[in-house]
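Q: Hi! First time doing this. I have a protein sequence and I read that you can turn it into a structure. Is that right? Here it is:
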Amino acid sequence: MDLGLEAAGVGQTIWQVEKDPYARRVLKKHWPDVARFDDVRSVGIANLERAHIIQGGFPCTETSVSGQVVRNQAGLDGEHSSLWWEMLRVCRELLPEFIVVENPPGLITNPAGIGQVLGGLSDLGYHARYDTLSSSACGAAHARFRVFIIAQRIIPDLNGERLPKRERVEANWAYAATPGSAGWFSEPNVGRVASGIPNRVDRMRCLGNAITPAVAYQVGLALRKMVENAASLDTA
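A: Yes, that's right. Below is the predicted 3D structure, encoded as structure tokens:
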């Protein structure tokens, strides 16, 4: 997600929160100068730099469609997916201008799902819109549907110093995968069963938790337009 949003020109990553040690090493490789934290429950206004945009995907353990096929999912009431409330707490403390949330489409069908997410955002003073987007829509050969929520704060912040001065949106547009571009594997070229092969299982897990960058880029374009519209209203 970080890669796609940066490519769309909405800003640069200033901190990341990731529990998995292997995933943190991957993030460190690509964002060596970015602050990283290992537990969303231990971060907030005391140790996070304020940002204009906060984006994240909370655990889908109890919201995934595949899980709903075989059992009743607990949604945001579940042990893992309930970490959404920690993400919401961070947003409440930092009050960014925009919030981007990602999850599988099971979030929409779960009774303890998207309604609670939208309600929580609304309580903080955000107007949110959501839609589903697949990797295949951006040129991949696999579907991989995901729900993306973009929320914009519509209640003015009474404390004008909560956020740094808005910086100019840089025009660093980047190439996004489109139909007819380089071919894709139907799934990433790593084995499902890879016992004994160093980093193979870890890599598969990271790919499963990640977002196709070309998809995140399209979300970033939509977000960029909203940022520019907000900036034009500020200067009108």
